[in-house]
Amino acid sequence: MTFSCRNYDFNLNNCQKLKSDCIPGRPGCVLEGKVRLSEELEKRLAELAANRKKKGG
Ligand code: SF4
Question: Closest ligand 1 atom, CA of 18?
Answer without folding.
Answer: 4
